[in-house]
Amino acid sequence: KARSESLRRGDLILFRDSQGLPFLHRLIKMDKMASTVQTKGDALRYRDRPVNSDNVLGRVCMIEKEKALFGLKYLNVESISWRTVNYIIAIYSIIKSKL
């Protein structure tokens, strides 16, 4: 779980859409005045409709990847290097959707 004030551009967030379905997309913009977040799936061309901050269920903090020879590998996406990468991906995603 994550409070809306702790969310940052580039975070992968789990949220419910207007029909109540869960989605995991990248946060690309926040509107604190309207209490909404703008998200976009990395593989999608267009942004999602704005989501009310109350519909955010949580933020991804760890990714588990299976490696055949070495068992499981965990990626801490809260590290400074991953936060930077996620921010760059979010900016790239915004530019790509505008083109």
In short:
This protein has one helix spanning 80-98, and strands spanning 12-16, 22-31, 36-40, 51-52, 56-59, 62-67, 71-76. It has 99 residues and is α+β, with helices and mostly antiparallel strands.
Descriptive report:
- By secondary structure, the chain is α+β, with helices and mostly antiparallel strands.
- 19% of the residues lie in helices and 38% in strands.
- The chain has one helix and seven strands, in the order βββββββα.
- It has one helix at residues 80-98, and strands spanning 12-16, 22-31, 36-40, 51-52, 56-59, 62-67, 71-76.
- Strands 4-3-2-1-5 form a five-stranded antiparallel beta sheet, covered by helices on one side. A two-stranded antiparallel sheet has the order 6-7.
- The longest helix is centred in the C-terminal third of the chain and has 19 residues, at 80-98.
- The protein is globular, with a radius of gyration of 14 Å.
- The model has no long low-confidence stretch (mean pLDDT 88).
- Total of helices: 1
CA gyration radius, whole angstroms: 14 Å
Mean pLDDT: 88
Contiguous uncertain segments of 5+ residues: none
Quote the distance from N terminus to C terminus: 33 Å
Strand arrangement in the largest pleated sheet: 4-3-2-1-5
Classification by helices and strands: alpha+beta
Instruction: Give a count of the beta strands, DSSP E runs of length 2 or more.
Output: 7
Strand proportion, as a percent range, falls in 35-45%
User: Mind describing the biggest β-sheet?
Assistant: 5 strands, antiparallel
Helical residues, percent:
10-25%
